[in-house]
Amino acid sequence: MKFTLPGPLTIMDTTADCFYNDRPKLNAALAQTVNKEIHALVDAGCQYIQVDEPLFARKVDDALGFGMEGLERCFHGVPKSVTRVVHMCCGYPDHLDDADYKKADPDSYHQLSQAIDQAAFDQISIEDAHCCNNLDLLDKFQLKTVIFGAVAIASSRVETVDELVARLRQALEHIDRDRLVVAPDCGLGLLSAELAEKKLRIMCQAAALV
Ligand SMILES: [Zn+2]
Description:
- By secondary structure, this protein is an alpha/beta fold.
- It has helices at 23-43, 60-74, 107-118, 136-139, 161-172, 193-209, and strands spanning 10-12, 15-17, 48-53, 83-88, 123-126, 145-151, 180-184.
- It is built from six helices and seven strands, in the order E-E-H-E-H-E-H-E-H-E-H-E-H.
- It is globular.
- The mean pLDDT is 93.
């Protein structure tokens, strides 16, 4: 099948640009649109609003060049009573236990950490279960609350309470207790309801013990 495009095409990951031919401009326009959606959620009474950011950990230069500004623009004008959360994703395979799937380089979080800590939002959700970060990373967050991915979402192996407790204790050597939130790495869409519940129960048991 053949198809033609109406003009020059640039790609921002899976977003095709046939109009701006300029990724920072596309980014700014998308951010403005997301900002409208976020204000609609605020008006509807949402107290916690999370933006899922799919690209920063893979494209650090773009993230620092123009992405972070777009992210802040998403939350522009949101009242202080609302908690502004960003998940920085390392990528999501299309099936469970996909050993070949290449996640983002864990060093990306380190490269982005200073900009994240200074950025105008409240909480940063990072993945740790699949990549086991160098936890010096947590020392770099002095202002942000960190939502710490403690459960792998693309693996059918069920974590043990002991291993989670050990990892959370290590994390607490690098960040204040009141700025650490425990969570799964990412969305739970790949897990069956039964497996997701099992992993979440273990996560909660571990959190209660730390
Ligand atoms: Zn993710």
